Amino acid sequence: MAAGTMDIRIIDGPLEVIALPAGDDGCGAETMFVGRTRGEHHADYGDLVALVYECYEAMAASTLEEIAKEAADRWPIRTLRLWHAMGRVAVGEASLLVATCTPHRSEGLAATAWIIDQLKLRAEI
Length: 125
Fold this sequence. Notes:
- Helix content is 29%, strand content 36%.
- The chain is α+β, with helices and mostly antiparallel strands.
């Protein structure tokens, strides 16, 4: 991904959803996935009001970077944003943001889905 940029962060609290910057004329597709805390009801405990994410930040950041680099090796990603929240994230707030810019939509959609799946499997969060 020599022509592109990666923005990988672990952010305290809910995420602010921000689109990727415009201007790369080789980018025909921008994909964005926003994971939000969804409301649920438990018969014994009542309504979910928030999730609290914890991690050993250095280890989790390293894993996110590995996943991002592997994705960039597999697809022609020109720009990649991978952010994950730590701490309290209330119902409706964003905890995960994966955004890609690629030449074509099929590449961006495949890369975004793969990144999410790998994060669920591998990230120490």
